[in-house]
Amino acid sequence: MGSGLTQRAVAAGIVLALVVGATFVMLLYSMAGMRRSQLQAGHSTQVLVVTNRLERRIMDMETGLRGFAITGQERFLQPWQEALAAYPREIGELEQLVADNPAQRARVHRIVTAGASYIDGYARPLVQAARRDRAAVTAMAIAEGERRVDVIRADFSALVTAEQSLLESQQKRSDAAARRAGVVGAAGLIASIALIAAYTGYLTRAVVAPVRRVAATAGRLAGGDLAARVPGRGVGEIGLLQSSFNTMAATLAHNREELAASRSRIVTAADQARRRIERNLHDGIQQRLVSLALEVRTAQTAVPQDRPDLGEQLNRLADGLGEAVDDLREISRGIHPAILSRAGLGPALKALARRSPVPVELDLNVPTRLPEPVEVAAYYVVSEALANTAKHARATLATVQAEARDGVLHLEVRDDGAGGATAGGGSGLVGVTDRVEALGGTMTITSPPAQGTTLVVDLPVGGQ
Known about the structure:
Layout: H1 5-71, H2 77-97, H3 102-132, H4 139-222, H5 237-301, H6 308-335, H7 338-343, H8 345-355, E1 360-365, H9 372-393, E2 398-405, E3 408-415, H10 429-438, E4 442-446, E5 453-460
Parallel strand pairs: 1-2
Antiparallel strand pairs: 2-3, 3-5, 4-5
Helix pairs in contact: 1-2, 1-3, 1-4, 2-3, 3-4, 4-5, 5-6, 5-10, 8-9, 9-10
């Protein structure tokens, strides 16, 4: 029982749980990687958005500053002032976004330095100078602003290029994590399905099929086949079930054999007792009555002529003794037919047919003597069947067939009566059935209403 079904079921459950758990953990890991990559991609996208906005601020500063320097009109300074007001907040946001990336932080630092130099060292002084004397603002000064903006834009371009490269790398990692999650999920699903299919097949082979065989064999056992057994090759608890079932079947078969032997002994003992009673009646009381009747007849011949009344009394006494002998013979025949013991089954059945009130046709093929219990059982089967025919069937003809072949005595009693007979209902066939079954025989009754009755009995001859 160390490798029983319970242990195997637990082991299979553990393996399945490990497969599902490992698949789930790997999926969570892949999903976490995807989440990290997506967050990093979102962060890079935000960096690019802020960088582009800052670059536009610088361009707005340069465009507004140039327009003011050339025209002297204050309206051109409005974009410059708006960009100048938003620049510190947005450059601070960019610094926070790249704070965890040293390379990008260095690039932003250069942009901050260049931007501060451009704003404080060039843009503001140029605006103040143009307001004092626009003619003093030279083309060289404007060109210097373009040069400084180009340097800042170059730093922005390097920052954007690096962030885009980082974004592409993160997207690749996200795609790889997604593919890995798909592969892990598919592999886990396939492994789980394969394990479940294998376990289902094992359960079908190790549990379902043996249980079905046990159920089918139990049906045979319930139908009377006590020799039915199941192969005891099951695993664990199934093997124990098969072994217990076979033990139960063997016990039932043994008990039935013991019961049949007990019934056979009871029937044999009853037959022997009936035979002793019949012999005692025949050899004792019957012979004594016959002797008394003869003595009375002898005494009757010695009665004087002048005593006719005494002779008449002796005559009545002799007739009464004769009737008593006849009654005693009839009683003896009912207890145990002497002709059956002396001549065998064939003559005994012929005697039954002669005494039957219903005409009987005989078809007998019993050339040799059979074991005594078989002959007695067959005699009482026919006797009871003919008695029932005379009492209940309202038949005009009965047929009795008896044939001994292949170790079996086959009896068949038919009539053309009213039918409707059963083995119970006080018909007397219950005792006959017990006698037949005690000898290992079978008896069937077919009696449809208004179609007569057929009684079939098979008694084993061999070994009796």
